[in-house]
What we know:
alpha+beta; conserved putative lor/sdh protein from methanococcus maripaludis s2 fold; Elongation Factor Tu (Ef-tu), domain 3; CATH 2.40.50.100; 4 domains; six-stranded antiparallel beta barrel; 5 helices; 21 strands
Amino acid sequence: MKKIAPPAFAAPSIALAAALFLSACGGGAEQPPAGPPEVGVVTVREQSVSLANELPGRTTAYESSDVRPQVNGLIVARLFTEGDQVRAGQPLYRIDPAPYEAAAANARAALTRSNAAIASSDALARRYGELVKINAISKQDYENAVTSAQQARADVAAQQALLRSAQIDLARTTIRAPISGRIGRSTFTTGALVSASQADALTTIQRLDPIYVDIQQSSADVLRLRQQLLAGDLTSAGGNVAVKLKLEDGTTYPQEGVLKFTDVTVDPTTGSQIIRAQFPNPRGLLLPGMYVRAEFAQATKANGLLVPQVAVSRDEKGQPTVLVVGAQNKLEMRKVTAPRTVGQDWLVTGGLKAGDKVVVDGAQMLRPGVPVKPVAPQGQKAAGAPAGAAAANKGQ
């Protein structure tokens, strides 16, 4: 019989199978054992930490004046435009002056009459003084003449005071701005009858540049801060503390303010204490009554420990914990005391000490007790790491 040649592709397949068999039997080179996993760490350092607060507040006019009449009468003219900027002394309203002009004229005439009477009484007193010396008149008549002259002088002084009072009332028929500022709407119109004793203001003027911000802080926070200051844990931020302002729409006010004073009393209805700050307001962006949030530093901790927020987690009881590279480069779980945040970091007041290496990345699947290799965090600085932490961890 004629032999049939095998297919052309059979030889390569046999060679490939032989190679696979030899590879399985011969055993390749063994892989070296893997080293400890790398974890990014920051070294905790003591540093001066400024403790800032963000608290709610309301804007308040720097100066405010309710304009009221000081004489009775009819308003005959309004001399301003509502919403305009007015200056101190500027005429705002005019009250009918006719009755006050008449009163001033009457007082002026009475003063003239009193001046005439004093001249006559003085002359009579001088004449009686000569006659009493020669016993031409009784001493009683002379004393009566002197008394009349003194009464005439008193009448002149009284009439001068009445004239001055009438002139003051006449001047008050023109109601002027007591302060400079932005004037509001007029609650009385021309023709309205007003009186000096009325409770309702004609209008209100407010000075808005600069402007105050009244910040509310709970009395409990104030008490805690005072106790820490007295114990020496914190130091006061001192005077001229800068204040930043966030507006209702979430934007930041472009200019910084300064703290002016802290009220010495606590509001019993709200349990809060007022802290007043002053801000420049040249463009009139801030208006009285606006809700804002103020951020400012109240104290400084000299030996604060900052830990990035990414390094802090919570246990089943809600206590803050961190992973630390301890002895023999093994992971340790530490419970810490972290009462507040400072920017993107936690301020740690217990559970850590300067020099501890806190894990910030690479330990998501690792448990305490596992050996690790500490390295610098990814990007040389973890998000929120304290200034200088990345540099301290270089070369580890």
